[in-house]
Amino acid sequence: MSNSKMSRRDFLKSASALAAVSCLPVSMVELAFADKRKNFMFAYISDSHIQFITGGGFVRNWDRGLIRAVAETNLLQPKPDFVVFGGDLAQLGMKEELDHGAEMLAKLDYKTYCVMGEHDYYLDLGEYWSKLYGPHYYSWDHKGVHFVTLNSILTYDDWTHERWPTAEQRMLEMAGLDNPNGSPFMVGKKQLDWLRKDLEKVKKETPIVVFSHSPIQKIYKGWNFWTEDAEDVQALLKPFNDVTVVYGHVHQIQYNQIGNISFHAVMATAWPWPYPQSYAQAKSHLPKLTVPMNRADPFFERDATGWQFIDIDNGRVSMEYNLSNNTNRTVAFNPKTGKPEDSAFQDPAKRIPPQTHY
Amino acid sequence: MLGRIVGAAFFVVTLAVIAGTLTVRADEFTKEDLERWQNEYMSVVEKGRALWVSPELGTNGVACAQCHPNAANTHPETYPKFQQQLGRVIALRDMINWCILNPLEGAPLALDDPDMIALEAYVMYERRGVELAPGKH
Ligand SMILES: [Fe+2]
Ligand SMILES: [Fe+2]
After folding, report:
1. What pLDDT is attached to residue B4?
2. Taking 50 as the threshold, does the pLDDT of residue A14 lie above it?
3. pLDDT, tens digit, 9 for 90 and up, residues A118-150
4. Segment (H or E) for A171
5. Mean of the per-residue pLDDT values of chain A
6. How much is the average pLDDT of A320-344?
7. Given A51, A178, A280, which is nearest B127 (Cβ)?
8. Looking at chain A, which residue has its C-alpha nearest residue B70?
9. Is residue A282 pLDDT above 50, yes or no?
10. Which residues contact B45 (CB under 8 A, 6 or more apart)?
């Protein structure tokens, strides 16, 4: 039994006491650690969509999601090395929303890295967000892993700068997931150049973990489950042995393997989204590897929301989905098959009815 | 004699009435009619779409589209169906009202409210082509 397995039990006890839920089932993964020193854990919270109500106050439901994720993350034992917030802290990029969200995030006991989401960006193009969290993209090294945070929610200049009479309208147009007036996300040339230079100094054996808001792969353009220049980013990551991309935005479990790159999506704390195949009028490309999350039960407002903790085992990601009203899920890189797999449901014979979305 | 004349006149009038109704018989409609009727429907679909993205249905600024892009995950083809948390078979509009009441913290619509019909028209339109599956969870 690994240390982290024990720690999850401790977390479980205290979390259930605090959150006053009868149980928070946490499924476990047993991993063969080749070199224990290379293993560490961090937490990932995303898509809180803190929403200001005209006339005062914030949407209670979304507030509760973030408050709960922060409280539970603080109970992790041993402590995670850091926390990542995966973007869409605000709903409409307003100062009130970012401040209120930042105040809740500040309660985290750990160093927190933030990723830019489109809901944080399109009001003032990330200006106020920067005052709180600094540069829009950056990299750092931690215990032998090279971490990169990208701002993947940029788009065509003329859409951003020429199309809309006001900043408020621009924000609203991009905020509507299914709005045909939106525009595809992209990383853009300037940032690709930065990434190329950033990766030049990294050894090919160094594990790389990239954080982005949108998937750096193409799943469904209609809802921007998509990054227009995903292939350009993938090409820069191709020379490295171990690469993982963790992304938010989709508010659901997704995972995939493209060449050397593993992809993992994280849950929202605010609300879940339908899988794109549930929209009957368009084709989409959910990775075949993905075993979907359970269909949400709207009678439990936290159902199909959650946060995650991520074990880095020799540079590879094991993603533990902490699901508020549901059995937890673990999706971990399997060195034998060379791709991420669900620890319980990967075998089609093991799937359960709530995983069928239509 | 008088009676026969009156009778004949009545016969002629009756024929004229029948002939008149022939031009507006219920099962005769033109391409233009079809287009007009479809447009009438689509104008209600558009109204439904406007409501779908509008904060006006609720009180907390939340809109249906935030959780149901393109009305996905509303499954109109499965209604009426048993909703386990309510313990009975309900109509689509009951579930529309449930979501207005809960995530939107709004007041439920009357079941024949034109806004309710518009919401249904939009939901059905986004789901066109999908086979009926009444009762399916
Ligand atoms: Fe989001
Ligand atoms: Fe997003």
Report:
1. 53
2. no
3. 999 999 999 999 999 999 999 999 999 999 999
4. helix A167-175
5. 91
6. 96
7. A280
8. A178
9. yes
10. B118, B121, B122, B125
Interchain contact, A53 vs B61, CB within 8 Å: yes
Closest by CA to A44, choosing from A113, A100, A103, is A113
Find tokens 């209604």 and name the residue.
B79
* Angle in degrees, CA B12, B13, B18, rounded to 5: 95
Residue in the block written with tokens 């006006």 = B56
- In this complex, the residue of B62, B69, B130 whose CB is nearest that of residue A177 is B69
Distance CA A67, CA A85 (A): 13
| pLDDT for res B23 | 59
CATH classification code of B31-126: 1.10.760.10
What is the structure's pLDDT at A35?
Answer: 57
Rounded CA-CA distance A162/A12 in Å is: 51
- Of A300, A309, A246, the residue nearest A69 (C-alpha): A309
**Closest partner residue to A298 among B61, B66, B99, by Cβ?**
B99
Q: Which residues of B touch A273 (CB under 8 A)?
A: 67, 69
Residue A15 has pLDDT above 50, yes or no: no
Q: In this structure, are residues A329 and A293 in contact, taking their beta carbons and an 8 Å threshold?
A: yes
Q: Is the dihedral of CA B18, B19, B20, B21 positive or negative?
A: positive
Inspect the interface and report whether the beta carbons of A301 and B102 lie closer than 8 Å: yes
CA A336 to ligand 1 centroid distance, Å = 33
Average pLDDT over residues A153-173: 98
DSSP assignment, residue B120? H
Query: Which residues of chain B have a pLDDT value below 70?
Result: 1-24
Q: Which residue of B has its CA nearest to A272?
A: B67
Other residues' Cβ atoms within 10 Å of the Cβ of residue A79: 15
User: Hey, what are B46's tokens?
Assistant: 């558009």
- The pTM (predicted TM-score) of the whole model is 0.90
CA of A248 to the centre of ligand 2 (A): 7
- Please tell me if residue A33 touches chain B, with a CB cutoff of 8 Å: no
E-strand ranges in chain A read 40-45, 83-85, 112-114, 138-142, 145-149, 208-212, 243-247, 255-258, 261-265, 306-313, 316-323, 329-334, 339-342
Lookup: tokens for A275: 């899988």
Among the bound ligands, the one closest to the CA of A89:
1
* Tokens (6 digits) for A231: 């292939």
**What ipTM was reported for this prediction?**
0.90
Report residue A169: phi and psi, to 5°: -65, -40
Residue range A82-98: mean pLDDT, rounded = 98
CA nearest neighbour of A293 among A249, A316, A323? A323
Please give the angle made by the CA atoms of B105, A303 and B72, to the nearest 5 degrees. Answer: 70
Contact A257, A243 (CB under 8 A): no
A17 confidence band (pLDDT: 50, 70, 90)? very low
Which homologous superfamily does the CATH classification assign to the domain defined by A8-344? Metallo-dependent phosphatases (3.60.21.10)
Question: Measuring CA to CA, how many Å separate A59 from each of A273, A323, B62?
Answer: 18, 21, 8
Contact B69 A51 (CB under 8 A): no
